[in-house]
Amino acid sequence: MKANTAAAGGGGVVNFGTVQIAHSTITENQVQSGNVGGLSVNGIGTVTDTHISHNSGLELGGVGTDIGTQLTLRAVTIVGNTARTGRGGGLGIGPSSPVVVEGSVIANNTAATVGGGIFNFGDLVVRDTKITGNQADMGAGIYNDETTALFNTKVVKNIAITDGGGITNVAGTVELNTATGTVVIKNRPNNCVNVPGCAG
Fold first, then answer.
1. Are the CB atoms for 140 and 159 separated by under 8 Å?
2. Residue 99 resides in a domain
3. pTM > 0.85
4. Torsion angles phi and psi, residue 186, rounded to 5
């Protein structure tokens, strides 16, 4: 799915119901005035071994979920996506949405406001994943407003303009499972805001 443009909704793939995507590429799509540039999931979704890159949305860049969406991402690369005026440059998670990310890379995504890599307003579990090089005004790697748990995950070299280069936690909880190899380092201007167990 490449180089599509939509006036509203989603630029690349919009799903209502159940969707399975594997061994695919979703790239260079854009939405002019609506939600998600790349993949919009509104139901139950599983995405495996897929490259989601250089998509552009007004509110969300690469992947976005609606309220109550169940989404699993395995071996997915989310890179170079942009939320032009909004949040969640790489991945934006809606309220009451359980999302699992495994064995993936979320890199070099940009959000105008918060959550360059991930904006989370749901229930997020991340395993064996690298979150790096993302940019936003605040919470460049991850901006959390609900529940996030990280296992063997690297949050490195993300850049925020204001605060929380690695992770910004607003009103929820962030669990850093350092015993499994999770690290939050080398982010600018600092690594974390309001995240227990995270230095600076």
1. yes
2. yes
3. yes
4. 60, 30
